[in-house]
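Repro:
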Amino acid sequence: MNDAVDPALRRRAVDAARGAGPFDLLITGGSVVDVGTCEVRPADVGLVGPLIASVHPTGSRTDALDVFDATGRFVAPGLVDMHVHFESSMLTPGAYATAVCPRGTTTIFGDPHELANVAGVAGVRYAVEASRGLPVRFIVQAPSCVPPMPGLELSGADLHGPDVAEMLAWPEVGGLAEVMDMLGVLTSDGRMVDVVAAGLASGKIVSGHAAGLSGPELQAYLAAGITSDHEIVAEPDAMEKLRSGMTVELRGAFEHLLPGLVAELNALPELPTHLCAATDDLFALTLLTDGGVDHLLRRLIGFGLDPVRALRIATYHAAYRLERTDLGLVAAGRQADLIVLSDLASVTVDDVFTAGRHVASGGRMLVDVVEGPSEPPLDTMKIGPVTPADMVLRVGDLPGGTANGSARLRVLAGPIFTQWGEAEAEIRDGVVVPPPGHMLQLTAHRHGRISARPQAALISGWGEWTGAIATSVSHDTHNLVVFGRDPVDMAAAANRVISTGGGVAVAAGGEATASIALPIAGILSPLTAPEVAAAQRALTEAAREIGLDLHLLTQPLFHVMVAALACLPGPHVTDLGLIDGTTGQLIPSPLLA
């Protein structure tokens, strides 16, 4: 749905375009990046209120209340992030806006399912209310899978068809968020049938999450009415999904996939309109240091994509996907969400206008950013302190277990894209001693709905650690997850997170060495973007010092935050125990016969 425009204001824009009245603001001397025709041409742009009233030959009009000189620079539409969980930045909506707006992002299509997994519908309402009046347009989606994999994990809430329908009726909600329960869709699970039906009945966009789906399964997922995916995790993914008619929300998390994809795009006779730009999950540190959508575009251009075509992906294509005829183009009648760039190839954004206001310049906000009145979810860590005795894998009391000796155990092999492995381990007093090359991952329910007793698994492929990491940012149910070998270090990290009402902590030598407090839903900080980024930098360095040296993802700490993601294929450990995300089964024991 387009933004409402007062008829009197639109009439004033019509008069200004005809020369019967002045513009409020005239952007002069620049070259317009026409992402519709993929041309760059000299033109001035006249604004009236939040609207573009006219795009006309350079110097042909001078009647304006104010003038902005863009000589020698480029005027383009504001960037649109088509799939983002702003909560992954650890910032509130206002702080998030201050991080992305100066770099050119003026609209986000946001899925607050991190908040929903902690606080249910109230968490989504907080996201909607807090994002009102910001210089970045938040188009919120209704979370579809809370929890993502029912029966394999528990979050802080359970959302069903009626809950989703309620949120879809809100005017700020633009569609159904990524449908992560792929197995539920493919097997016509009743809960997922109801949720997707609510999305389709709303007439709004139905977004997807199709990690690993290909061939008949991908076709079946599309046939269910789901129309997009951002889970491009292997070389063939993007082109197969584009060729199947699925909107691809391209992110930059897997850097190694981008060069090949750019080559394939350049070989096509036309750039697919159903290819958009997305960031998905980026820390505040990444947003402030590298950027968001702008950073993705720089990399695509660096790998050989034409700069105007790259900008088209993040503007015109996004507006097409959103069914927003008022966004995505520098053209009369559209919203005056504009960026002024000094260089296209490097996507160097100098100035940002949203709704006709000059809101950022030189990487800084020019206006005060004030969130709408809201009630953030607090006091969500419903778990008491832990002891080192809690931070172990006990097998002595299990069928086939032993108090002392050795045992053959199941192993979660590799980070993120896990596979089942096996290992022989020593057992002392019923407790597994992790063999070399292995450590423990524990997940403890922290929402107060079941026992908080940690569930543990042996993991491999993470290197040799000399400390521990604990986090309540653990996608997507955001339970407490702890990694390490030494129970003392693991307890120290976990207790720091618990004591601060949620957060992330690194421990070594029996004490926390770095941490960030996230008291809002256990996943967000009330601090500014630079303050949160500084804490994330310290955490990343502390994690490297204890041995976290993984580079599958561009953000090393994110490996631990997605390790319990039950909707990903392969084995994981959740608050309910060992599970297999491929088969949708709970595994009764870590012991092998």
